[in-house]
From TrEMBL:
Top enzyme class: transferase
Assigned EC number: 2.7.7.65
Sample GO molecular function, one term: diguanylate cyclase activity
Residues of the full protein shown: 129 to 452 of 455
Gene Ontology CC, one term: plasma membrane
Coiled coil region boundaries: none
Catalytic activity annotation: 2 GTP = 3',3'-c-di-GMP + 2 diphosphate
Protein name: diguanylate cyclase
GO biological process per UniProt: cell adhesion involved in single-species biofilm formation; negative regulation of bacterial-type flagellum-dependent cell motility; phosphorelay signal transduction system
Swiss-Prot/TrEMBL keywords: Phosphoprotein
Keyword 4Fe-4S: no
């Protein structure tokens, strides 16, 4: 196969492909039951990808789920094994479902190819494999995969930014607003308890007034890290605004939530906050209000409202305390 390039001389397709590599070298898993074809395909792929070769389809599936391949090539040449089984498993696993699959099939085996495409196999190539065609098809898939990965990562990053509080790294109020309803609905549907804690730093304005706003920010960051250290993985901790934080505790009845809240209160009050900017160790306390889901019927707004009322009680009764 010769192509006329824009310049006057002709160069081979393979040469063109080599000049137009993917942004990163591709990583390819070749699943091939025969040593002879393994070797041939390996040689052809060498210029564009790092290739792992496996002869056992089930071992290959595990390898694909563990690693981060840009492409899986399935050579339909196994004894007593339907190559589409592997393809279908690759399509159904969370860890592998975005990896493109290239099927190598015998000329004329249209039925296999149709079934493969129906399963979600990305592309196919006929035997005998033309090395240039193989490279062209692989490069297309590798580039597409790498481009999709970047896109997915950037969407993920945008989402993270939108739901994260810049100052503390906790979730922000926007996330709480969208997620609390989901957690409440889920708890209701399953007849599970759920509790919520609103906590507000006591006399925080004095910190700002005495040590400056930046020191206040440092207190907020340290406070957030103590919140993080108190909650469990399933809990949702967020900065509700200003010096107010909300913790949503799924599967947590009122008595257990009271224990968590008391632990947080002590976590804050029992150890001073070292503020580097002010070269000072501040005594900080917080007030906490609790509310738990009413199984007979409740809403996120009503739940938050009850916790807020409890918080105001805590403030009015001397601060540095938990009120349920
Ligand atoms: P109380 O015990 O009644 O809660 O008293 P307080 O002083 O904590 O309450 P108040 O609501 O009067 O003051 C909250 C202060 O929090 C006022 C505001 O300037 C400050 N604040 C809000 N957001 C931030 C922030 O992001 N950084 C800093 N440093 N201060 C903030
Ligand atoms: Mg206040
Ligand atoms: Mg306050
Ligand atoms: Mg406040």
């Amino acid at each position: 196969l010769r192509l006329r390039a824009q310049t006057t001389h002709t160069i081979g397709l393979q040469e063109l492909l080599r000049q137009d590599r993917p942004d990163e070298p591709g990583s390819v898993l070749l699943v091939d039951g025969r040593a002879s074809s393994q070797e041939r395909l390996l040689r052809a792929l060498k210029p564009i990808a790092a290739v792992s070769v496996m002869a056992e389809p089930q071992a290959a599936l595990f390898e694909a789920a563990e690693s981060d391949f840009d492409l899986v090539i399935v050579n339909a040449n196994f004894d007593d094994y339907d190559p589409l089984r592997l393809c279908s498993q690759l399509r159904s696993l969370e860890r592998t479902r975005f990896i493109p699959i290239l099927l190598v099939a015998d000329q004329g085996n249209d039925e296999l190819i149709v079934r493969a495409l129906e399963l979600g196999v990305t592309d196919y190539i006929m035997r005998p494999v033309d090395p240039n065609e193989l490279l062209a098809r692989c490069l297309t898939q590798i580039r597409r995969k790498q481009c999709n990965d970047r896109l997915r990562a950037s969407v993920q990053q945008t989402i993270e930014l939108a739901i994260t509080d810049d100052l503390t790294g906790l979730h922000n109020r926007r996330y709480l607003d969208s997620h609390l309803k989901l957690l409440v609905d889920r708890a209701m549907a399953r007849g599970r308890p759920l509790s919520i804690c609103i906590t507000d730093i006591d006399r925080f304005k004095q910190v700002n007034d005495t040590y400056g706003h930046d020191s206040g920010d440092e207190v907020l960051r340290e406070f957030a890290s103590r919140v993080r250290a108190t909650v469990r993985g399933a809990d949702l901790a967020c900065r509700f605004g200003g010096e107010e934080f909300v913790i949503v505790m799924p599967d947590t009845p009122a008595e257990m939530a009271a224990v968590v809240a008391e632990r947080l209160r002590l976590m804050v009050a029992s150890r001073g906050f070292e503020i580097a900017r002010a070269d000072a160790v501040l005594s900080v306390t917080a007030s906490l209000g609790l509310a738990s889901l009413r199984p007979e019927g409740d809403t996120p707004e009503a739940l938050l409202k009850r916790a807020d009322v409890a918080l105001y009680d805590a403030k009015n009764n001397g601060r540095n305390r938990v009120v349920a």
